[in-house]
Design brief:
3 domains, 32% helix
């Protein structure tokens, strides 16, 4: 059985103040072209359809058109909500859309019913597991000792009516431990929201959403599709694409079909005179979304306006010189993103009180940070 795995469309997103809707419209058209070329039996969309829980009308209209395009191709489409989505809004109309082959995960109520397709090797059961927090799962299974995200996902899977004689495929939107992350994704550096990959062992394939880099975690059977577009400069070096999944009788093979965006997103570093030199510009796609880091020791007068004359889609301007490196060293800002919330609190407490937190204080802080993160993610 051939499947196309997508995730993290983030329709309606703005990047550095730039609306991405036309870029998203373009990339969805490219995805439909890949659907035509690959002829899959099903398309899996593993969450974060929208960038906000209340998406703009234009984003809803764009997704509506994409679903119409998929439904018109006579295949099955399975969709779950992610942490950026409203589960209720994404699920709206799901029972009516089932007849068109569009299957939307309902709001989790303690039970999940499988959706089944068959091929020459027999049936494949698809399990649509929307993004969930421990508190949401705990209310249905209060005796399961659910404290962590791993506990929550394990409990959900344990209560599925899985048939081991059938190939099972899960759609999941979570942060799986061991995966590579970037700045555009919501997660705790300390790993409070991590889910152990081992919980997905019962599935022949787990179609993941949440992280924007296409990647397998442990094996090709547990994989992130990644986002179809670059949504931050931390993603500039990523290769975006559509994951094609070939599900055999007793194994899985995946490959990435590349996606070429309407405008790439990239970083440029150099002296002002060098990056604005006509010879240099002749070899560049100057319509790309750019972050330019100038290496000049002195600030260049009207640098942003002058650079925009060469790079109309300039998104960010930075300097890397003696002054900025000195400022980063003084503030310690360069290291903040690599520290856990508990480490940052520890440093603040030490700075204010002249001594580190006690073990009891650290244990209390850990519990509170976990509870706050669970409520706000």
């Amino acid at each position: 059985m051939k499947l196309l795995h997508l995730a993290d469309l983030h329709l309606g997103k703005r990047v550095n103040g730039f609306p991405m809707l036309e870029d998203q419209r373009y990339i969805l058209e490219r995805i439909l072209a890949i659907v035509d070329a690959e002829a899959p039996q099903a398309v899996l969309i593993a969450g974060d359809v929208y960038d906000r829980t209340v998406p703009p009308e234009e984003a809803v209209d764009l997704f509506d058109g994409f679903l119409v395009g998929l439904a018109g191709r006579g295949l099955q489409v399975y969709i779950i909500s992610g942490n950026h989505d409203s589960a209720g809004r994404v699920a709206f109309g799901g029972r009516l859309m089932d007849a068109s082959g569009i299957h939307l995960a309902p709001v989790y109520n303690g039970t999940i019913a499988p959706l089944t397709l068959s091929d020459e090797y027999g049936p494949v059961a698809f399990w649509l597991i929307p993004f969930l927090k421990p508190a949401q799962v705990r209310r249905f299974w209060p005796d399961d000792g659910i404290e962590t995200y791993t506990d929550a996902v394990r409990a959900v899977i344990a209560h599925l009516d899985l048939d081991s004689a059938c190939r099972n495929v899960a759609l999941v939107h979570q942060f799986v431990a061991g995966a590579a992350v970037c700045d555009s994704e919501e997660h705790t550096v300390g790993g409070l929201d991590e889910v152990a990959a081992a919980v997905f062992a019962p599935f022949a394939y787990t179609a993941l959403g949440h992280l924007h880099s296409p990647q397998s975690v442990g094996s090709d059977a547990v994989r992130y599709a990644g986002s179809p577009l670059k949504y931050s400069f931390s993603e500039a070096d990523q290769k975006k694409g559509v994951t094609v999944v070939e599900l055999g009788a007793d194994g899985v093979a995946v490959r990435l079909v590349p996606l070429q965006p309407r405008h790439d997103l990239r970083r440029i570093r150099g002296l002002f005179d060098a990056v604005t030199d006509p010879g240099y510009l002749a070899g560049q796609d100057t319509d790309d979304y750019c972050e330019i880091t100038l290496l000049d020791e002195e600030d260049v007068p009207s640098a942003q306006a002058r650079l925009r004359a060469c790079y109309p889609n300039l998104m960010a301007l930075r300097y890397d010189n003696t002054r900025t490196r000195s400022e980063a060293q003084v503030t310690g800002s360069a290291d903040v993103e690599h520290k856990t919330p508990l480490q940052l609190l520890d440093e603040l407490y030490d700075l204010q009180n002249g001594q580190p937190m006690s073990e009891d204080q650290r244990a209390l802080a850990t519990r509170l940070i976990t509870e706050i993160w669970e409520e706000t993610l």
